[in-house]
Design brief:
The structure is a single chain. This protein is about 40% helix and about 20% strand. It is α/β, with parallel strands linked by helices and about 210 residues long.
């Protein structure tokens, strides 16, 4: 990565981490995916029950594979025969993995969900929520974060899942009420009432959508 971009991201991450701290959340900066993986495994105790929403970023840094191979009780929703039971198990998990659709530079997390299992687990249930966030998802304010979530993340995810939504066809949010819409629930996390529950690893890389 260009040295100037690297330096800019380091400085921006410091601002984001300070914002997270003011919101009773904990932030970390990783210079690359390898460092992010190391930090994530440091935060997840061996023997922990771990599950996740659809966090591509966790896959991209190698975290999911490491958990499956390691000494962890990884609840694999995709491989489960009873997917509903696997989703419900998330609420009592030690660690829930996620990313964000967007995030402000003062530490507000923005997520949109279709089935709502991801946003509901972020809001309540798991003892620890660990976010893996590429620096490409950092926005200047809540308005731009919402626009990113709706006009970048949502259309790409709709296309990825093969859904028949207007945004999948146009590449932009049409504020639809399509049966396939994945914009059913919007979660804005501006503060964590429970200290040491929400942890965010900022990665100096373009991760997820």
């Amino acid at each position: 990565m260009n040295e100037m971009i690297l330096r800019r991201n380091e400085l921006l991450a410091k601002k984001v981490i300070k914002g997270l701290e003011s919101r009773n959340m904990t932030g970390y900066y990783a210079a690359g995916s390898g460092e992010a993986l190391e930090k994530a495994l440091e935060l997840i105790a061996e023997g922990s029950s771990v599950t996740m929403g659809g966090a591509m970023s966790a896959w991209e840094i190698g975290l999911v594979d490491a958990l499956k191979k390691g000494n962890y009780n990884f609840i694999d929703r995709d491989a489960a025969e009873d997917k509903r039971a696997a989703m419900l198990a998330a609420y009592d998990a030690d660690v829930f993995l996620s990313s964000v659709n967007a995030m402000t530079d003062d530490g507000i997390l923005v997520n949109i969900d279709g089935n709502s299992n991801r946003v509901s687990a972020i809001a309540q249930g798991p003892r620890k929520v660990l976010f893996i966030v590429g620096m490409n998802k950092i926005c200047s304010d809540l308005d731009s974060a919402m626009k990113r979530a709706r006009n970048v993340a949502a259309p790409i995810n709709a296309q990825r899942f093969g859904l028949s939504t207007p945004c999948a066809k146009t590449g932009a949010c049409m504020d639809c009420k399509s049966p396939d819409t994945i914009c059913c629930q919007f979660l804005i996390t501006r503060y964590s009432r429970h200290k040491d529950r929400i942890h965010v690893i900022l990665v100096n890389d373009n991760l997820g959508f």
